[in-house]
Automatic annotation (TrEMBL):
Span of the signal peptide: none
Domain RNA polymerase sigma-70 region intervals: 14-76
An individual GO BP term: DNA-templated transcription initiation
Organism, scientific name: Dictyobacter alpinus
Protein name: DNA-directed RNA polymerase sigma-70 factor
Keywords: DNA-directed RNA polymerase, Transcription
Every RNA polymerase sigma factor 70 region 4 type domain range: 115-165
Keyword Manganese set for record: no
Gene Ontology molecular function: any one: DNA binding
Coiled-coil region: none
Gene3D superfamilies: 1.10.1740.10, 3.10.450.50, Winged helix-like DNA-binding domain superfamily/Winged helix DNA-binding domain (1.10.10.10)
Subunit-level organization: Interacts transiently with the RNA polymerase catalytic core formed by RpoA, RpoB, RpoC and RpoZ (2 alpha, 1 beta, 1 beta' and 1 omega subunit) to form the RNA polymerase holoenzyme that can initiate transcription.
Keyword Iron: no
Pfam family, one: Sigma70_r2
Amino acid sequence: MSMCNKPEDTTTVIFQQYKTLLFSIAYRMLGSCSDAEDMVQETFVRWLQAQQDRVESPKAYLSTVVVRLCIDHSRLARTQREIYVGPWLPEPLSDSLYPELFESVIQDESLSYAFLVMLEKLGPLERAVFLLRDIFDYEYADIAKMVEKSEANCRQVLRRARQHLGQQRLRFAVSREQQEQLTQQFLRASIEGDMQGLLHLLTDDIVFTGDSNGTGPQARKPVIGPTRVTRGMFGGMRFIPPDSQVRIINLNGQPAIMIYTPQGIYGVILFEIQDNRIRNIYSIINPAKLQRLMPNAHDSTPRLKE
């Protein structure tokens, strides 16, 4: 029996074998869980419509479809971001909702929030080639087919992408213990109003970037420097709802601070750590980017003891 005549459940089983891979590619390509899920769903639709008896490799076919969809979507999204209010940051990824994505060290590091922010420096084609080669280890011949370029051109694109990222690629190897310790210290200093304690945790070139899309009190440009960042953090705390609670949860394979109320999540804060200090603070209060974190607001993650 040819694949095109197989029952629908068998076709679905084949797709399910690669669904995690497809989402992994799409999320890194787009920096958005919702968009990644849409791309995976559209890939499934096209898989059902394909003449599967002519598909030599389901993995290659499905990967090609999702990569091309993501490249097209990325180009459209960049245009739409021209009207976005303030900085645009990736949508955080819940470890508990997507545990299968964190099964290897390299995959874990490439899902770190700072890594995703770094990827925003790349155009859609550069981002695709870089991820497919350096993260997913596809051969140049396969990548060339996916992005419809020659192998030689793909090598040039990858070289250009690596140059754009430069030394920043080397910054993300931080131990889990170090991440947890600094996150706890940051939260404790913030709750206690300890400005000196907070300053001690920050690098001299610390940058605070907030994403609200105009929906809440968030700086519309990055704030640079430890004094300005610390004052801005304490000043911004007065806008947090009085019935809020805080806890540390796992997002993008790292500890993150969640602020939530009985009505839902107010915001999350993630860090990039370098040399045992915080180099970047990312604050997201745009409700559209917090919806998929709702199941974790009241999970069993221990709350910081004050």
